[in-house]
Every structure is written in structure tokens, then in C-alpha cells.
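Hi F.,

I've been meaning to write this up properly since the lab meeting, where we talked about keeping a consistent format for the predictions we share between groups. The idea is simple: the sequence comes first, exactly as it goes in, then the C-alpha cells exactly as they come out, then a line or two of notes. No screenshots and no reformatting. I'm using this chain as the first example so we have something concrete to point to.
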Amino acid sequence: MRKKAVLSVIGLAVAVAMTVPASAVAKPTMFDRFEARTTCISERGIGDPVKMMEFKMLYGRRPMRKCVKMHARTIAMERRFELPMIRMECRIAARTDPAFRLEFPSVKACVRMEMMP
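Output, unedited:
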């Protein structure tokens, strides 16, 4: 009986651990979707029927929508991982560069502008 309780607690912990990263994913912005769309258009190819069929076979039904969705999520995750580095660079620039305040009114504005594509 005790073994079943331990296994159920471990199983529950694994289930919670697997759902937390999925819910912590950043939501793609309009800029992320636009960048993903340009990537998908180049991946699909224009005027090449073989490349278009490969694209359809890879992504299945509604291939452009699935491709954009997938690439936008990866781009959003990459941006989320870049955020601490950008924040640190803006703070260092605010302390060392005397012309920083002429370009950006605050560190928060610097981070926001550097995050844009």
C-alpha cells in the first residue's frame, strides 16, 4: 500500500513538472507572427510544386497556419531567453554612457526598443 502512495506522489509530481513549462511559454506577439510568416513563406517556396508538396506533407492540414504557429512560438521563446541579457546591457549602458538618456528616457524603454525586431 505504501509503495502505491509513493508511486502516485511521484507520478503527480512528474505530471505537474511537465505542465508548468508549457504554461510558462510566452505568448507570441504580432511581430513574432510576422517574422514566422516570412520564414514559412521562404520555407514553402514560390512556384516550386515539389517544395510546396513537401511543405504540405510536413505540416498536414492548413500547413501555413501550423507553420506560422510553430515558428512564432519558437521565436517568442527565444526572445524570452534573450530578455535578461538585454536588460543587463541596457542597465550597463545607462550607467556608463552619458548619451543614453538622449536616446532612451529610461532603462525600461531601452529594453522595450531592443526587444523589437
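Notes:
The radius of gyration is 22 Å.
The chain has one domain: 2-115.

If this format works for you, I'll send the rest the same way.

G.
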